[in-house]
Amino acid sequence: xxxxxxxxxxxxxxxxxxxxxxxxxxxxxxxxxxxxxxxxxxxxxxxxxxxxxxxxxxxxxxxxxxxxxxxxxxxxxxxxxxxxxxxxxxxxxxxxxxxxxxxxxxxxxxxxxxxxxxxxxxxxxxxxxxxxxxxxxxxxxxxxxxxxxxxxxxxxxxxxxxxxxxxxxxxxxxxxxxxxxxxxxxxxxxxxxxxxxxxxxxxxxxxxxxxxxxxxxxxxxxxxxxxxxxxxxxxxxxxxxxxxxxxxxxxxxxxxxxxxxxxxxxxxxxxxxxxxxxxxxxxxxxxxxxxxxxxxxxxxxxxxxxxxxxxxxxxxxxxxxxxxxxxxxxxxxxxxxxxxxxxxxxxxxxxxxxxxxxxxxxxxxxxxxxxxxxxxxxxxxxxxxxxxxxx
Length: 391
Description:
By secondary structure, the chain is α+β, with helices and mostly antiparallel strands.
């Protein structure tokens, strides 16, 4: 009952100081809203683990050439890397493609990927129905098979399992459907509508190490093998291959980077700078709230002195001020949450191509809770330090 009376009294006091209350709420809302929105983007893009088995051991291996600091692998170099390296428990490859889907509805250009027969198994990706592409499908003379992306399966085939064994036409070539990828599957920041085996296509490539058709080499480190060890070994292999065939091999070295690090390398500096800026904004907001509370308390010394002369204890006064601080903090938090949710679509639109394609960005509950608690602590701590004694 006393708490209800304290809340009612605090609300009356805040209504009397409308300008102070509005400034405090807006200050907190901006700090909480901006931090929650920006950190949610930061977490979703940079910190969220890749959706694969043991993602910390996945790396991307690239070529380093004289005029190209980082380059996708040639097919011949990739095959030799895979055959000669000892640091990896598995070594696979993928290639982004676009093909024309015809038949069974309107023709359309759809994004897809070619993968080596071992890649999906290495990543720990299972199909929703059917089976994944395997090493048997990855031979030069293997029958043409395809995995459907979950979105294409729903859009063009109604999510029917009877699609297994059916034939679809991609770039005027028939492919037999053997499985469907799980919902939300993406690889190299692309959610493919289809996946086909790389081997039959790669067998027709020219015998030339300077031919770079966009093959991305992905490997998994063996347990106990460090990234530095893998880098040293791959550098030795690449330099040996270059010495053996420098006439058409432009790869003078190999680069081994953690998969997640390489995928976000283009956006990390900008997001880190933006995150630092909004954290600074939150700290300023909390500091401003503390100063506002202290300034308000100084202005209320006469009121506090009168209440104490009527028998109010130090603790009762401090408790009342803390309740006022909590009310302001919670109101600012509520407005800040609304601001974060409202600003997220605009933020994603403004970011445009800066963010990776298909980045799953949403409000992060943990950082939202952290910013709310921080703002509440700022309000309570400043209230608890109020000069309840006038001297």
